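Meet my pick.
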Amino acid sequence: MAEATPSINRFGNYIVQEKLGSGGMAVVYKAQNEETKETVALKILRSSLMEQPGIMERFKQEATIAERLNHAHIVAVNNYGVIKGRYFLDMQYMAGGTLAERFAKPTEIGSQEAVRLLRNVASGLDFAHRQGVIHRDLKLENILLDSNGHAALADFSIARLSDGNKLTATGFVVGTPMTIAPEQARGDVNLDHRADLYSLAVIAYVLAVGRYPFNGNNPLAILHQHLAEAPPPPSVVNPNLPKALDAVLLRGLAKQPAERYPNADMLIEAFARAVSEQSFSRTVVDLKTDSAGNPIQIVPIRKNDTADDWVKRALATENKEEAIGYLKRALELEPLHSKANRVLFQLEGAVPKAAAAKAKVVTPLPSGNLATLKKANTVSKRSNWYYAVLVGSILVGLSLLFFLLSVSGSPIANQIANVIQGRYAITQIDGVPIKQVPGAVLKINPQDRTTILYGQKINDTLENGFSHAYVFDVISGQTMGIGVFFISKGAQHVSKNVAVMDSNGQSAGNRCQMQKNPNQDTSATFSCKIDQTGKWSLRVLGIDGESTGSYVVTVERTG
């Protein structure tokens, strides 16, 4: 039920003039303070939330933080308190509304204006960080404009003080999917100011490119993109943008906090230098379209939906993109869901080698072409240029052949690559075929090692006699979920050829309990209790008929 305007348009000493907006926690009105005669924004806590634990603390926290943040580009809190049992904040009134309201429909913005607004926001954000305050919810809705078009930061209701005075957020998602930093989406508790810098980079991306870097039909899929997918380079989405902007925004959107700019000012000044390389331009900001130009239609998520429910929807729809979205929702709820991982892997383009080999068709050369080939065999004196061109053509042909074999999934391509890189299959141990050696996965040193990040999914292909290792950083006391999901029909008994190794290179043993799939053995999932800080690894060994072909690996932090 909508929150009613206070009776007789009066709230204590305030005359309420109009409703400006509302959120899950409070309603904001335009009002006049009868004592000062000033127009203010009056934020009043919803009466229905008064009894919920932690809500009043969050509301008070916003006022407490505001006392630290006296800055031209941070919305000021003039007063706060309780009137007739209702908590309120008396805040600076910003006549221009929010950036979200400005771009509620497709709207143009010039590059110079975008730089000016971003400098305003960066100035306020850096000041907050120097005062030990992390905003944690930087988005277009929380950037307000005054009557002159200057921007200021607002809504520190879920902010955190870095001096240890932490804010509880019981019952609420901390952050907003469209602009949330990867570490925040993972639920990391030790966030620092660099999470805000990621969100600022998202906003800079929007103002320059005209679209969010990650967008879609549901919040869970967007969170997954922030965690695991690379943002589209700005100049790919909008070819009118300078290439120099790609490096700036992609650094700002780095998954690892250490790879981002150290502060907001450096990010925005790099942004300003990049856009100065182009002639004056204007971008149409369209928030209801994704980076590929597809319209967004939000699909509501019901609280009781399970991962199995989303998989069923994915299998029922004929729309590939819609199915992928459903599967990503399933994996947000249950990251190691075997069927969701395998089906998603198939839909995103991976093809088992056996299937690719069967799909190849060899077309015989028509006999009418033989005469042309015979002429090519005529011996004649050739110049050096001829032979140079001939050798070059052969090399190009071999490169093209290798590329086509790789695309088709042919094992020949992998064999060629292995020979070039000096890697050879190990098919026996002390003269005994590896298929007959118990625990062979523990005895063969991996020919390939790949670093895998939390939440990342790696698609790979495995051949007989080759072992792959996926290395990840862990801290003692964590719990991890680890999964390997083969899509090749010939991959059976996969679990016997998969093992988790601790930081000493020893088998994790009982510390990683394998979860058996009663119906088939084309996957292996582990629940691990980490007792050693360092680099652990997952090993996968390829054995014909058991664990070869295409598969996906994922590592998740579960506690």
Notes: Confidence is low (pLDDT under 50) at residues 163-173, 350-382. The CA atoms of residues 138 and 199 lie 6 Å apart. The longest helix spans residues 384-408. The radius of gyration is 29 Å.
